[in-house]
Amino acid sequence: MIENPRNLAPFNRRRARFRCWLILFITSLFFQGYALADSEVSRIPILDAPPGTVGLGVGVRLETTPYKEDESSSGIGDDINQDWVPMYLYEGKYLFAHGTSVGVHMYRNDFFSADALARYRFDQLDPQTSDFYEGMEKREQTVDAGFSFSFKGAFGSVKFEWVTDTLNKHNGEEVDVTYRYRLDEGRWIYSPFFSVIYQDGQLSNYYFGVSEAEARPGRPAYEPGSGAFARIGLNTSYQLTRRWLLYANIAFEGMDTGQRESPLVEEDYLAAVFMGASYLFGDIYVADVADLKRKKEWSWRINYGYNAKEIFNHTIRGDLRPDNEIDTEVLGFTFGKLVTGGPRIDVYGRLALFRRLEEPFQDDFWDYVAYVMVMGKGYKPWSDQLAFRWGVGYGVSYAEEAPAAEKIEQAEKGRDTSRFLNYLEMQVDFPVDNLVKTKSLRNCFVGMTVAHRSGLFGSSDLFNNVSGGSNAITGHLECLR
Asked: CA end-to-end span of the chain, whole Å?
């Protein structure tokens, strides 16, 4: 007896999904390639989330390099590099953060959008990875910025993107035209795409050229000039729960002829794989709270403190001694908006501005922080009266200068610093009402905050592969409004 095809449909769909993920996984083991900038392969599905959505996640890029004899210290095998990418996600009415790209929605409707954006370019070449590159200048990662214009319809979507260097590394430009089609099937989203990328001569020469001063026997001077190449790929995502989102993306591309003939290059074709997971906390514009009166709740906080002597895990366990050798201070203001809340847990999106007071070690400077704060609450026995709060925050910090504590510590270990680092915060405080009954300080809290800057154990290119960081211990006053 032949089974009815209708009865086999659910099974066939499950089998097709399993095959898709299996192919992605196997391909990631054998065809990892190097990702050019923040390309479509690292596109995160939060782009389709409601305005105001806040999320955190982590992804992994597995890549081989197009360069000859590149033996990066971050590798997991011959010519295979691994890079962990923290994902800080926000999709707002006007602002957005999509992992390694941020920007402003200048205009958008159901059919057209225009954005100004900045994105991280992961391309790099470190001469210290091999004797073959002795005498060459380092090719560094950078931040590109520009504009993106997208058109959507029943046919799919077409995106035109132009970016240029902002940190005076390659000083070039790139144009990306991408066609994408989206398929929704229950909790699954499949999104194949095709891109044509143009890179001007300055960008191409920076990463693939050899100057006259760098020329050696076996490594002649070379200028590839401008180039164009095509990329094809598939992005997939799975809505595991209401909050958890999984994704696995893959792309293949052929290198431009001029770049492929560079004496630095040994690959003709490349592939890129990006896999990760994100947790979506909710929508700050329609707060998911038990008490709907709180949906417009926001907070402000001021804090002041000093550089801590001990490492982070010792500090949060109670060793609050100041570092008398690197005696610096920090003054800060923080603005927060309620994302989701309830009787035991609140979640806030926060922006902080810290003034790092570092004289005589160096001039004072600003430190800009964006993060998500999960705030727990404790109550007095047999009552609904709040006794204390505790919180853990996670996000990013960009300082105008690396703090003196980080510079000194990293120099002692022979390591680099980074102005852009991971940010972790722990906070505990108590209602002022428990101490003083005053209307002006209603819904205000006094307590202590530990602010921590660091890399991801030297495993993230985004943070310049920094291992280590600095800690500040501060007292604070925070009020809800």
From this structure: 69
Alpha-carbon torsion (101, 67, 417, 172), positive or negative: negative
Whether the Cβ atoms of residue 144 and residue 62 lie closer than 8 Å to each other: no
pLDDT (tens digit per residue) in 26-38 = 333 333 333 344 4
Task: Identify which of 77, 166, 75 has the alpha carbon closest to the alpha carbon of residue 118.
Answer: 166
Q: Are residues 276 and 373 in the same domain?
A: no
Question: Quick one: which of 2, 13, 33, 22 has its CA closest to 269?
Answer: 33
Q: Is residue 478 classed exposed, middle or buried when 0-12, 13-18 and 19+ CB atoms within 10 A define those classes? A: buried
| The total number of structural domains that make up the chain | 2
Mean pLDDT of 431-442: 83
Integer-rounded Cα radius of gyration of the chain? 25
Residue ending a domain, among 245, 264, 283, is 283
**pTM (predicted TM-score):** 0.81
Do residues 278 and 55 lie in contact, with contact meaning Cβ atoms separated by under 8 Å? yes
Cis peptide upstream of residue 10 (ω within 30 degrees of 0):
no
Same domain as 178, residue 322: no
CA-CA distance, 449 to 473, in Å (whole number)?
6
Among 265, 283, 301, residue at a domain's last position = 283
Does 340 score more than 60 pLDDT?
yes
Answer yes or no: do 307 and 160 share one domain.
no
What residues are paired with 26 via a beta bridge? none
Q: How far is CA 56 from CA 23, 90, 458, in A?
A: 27, 9, 20
One domain, residues 410 and 423: yes
Q: Are 193 and 176 in contact (CB under 8 A)?
A: no
Handedness of CA 69, 75, 81, 85 (dihedral sign): negative
CA dist., res. 147 & res. 107, Å (int): 12
Do 80 and 48 meet the contact criterion of CB atoms below 8 Å apart? no
pLDDT band at 410 (very low <50, low <70, confident <90, very high): confident
Count Cβ atoms within 10 A of the Cβ of residue 75 and give its class: 0-12 exposed, 13-18 middle, 19 or more buried: middle
Task: Output the pLDDT for position 284.
Answer: 73
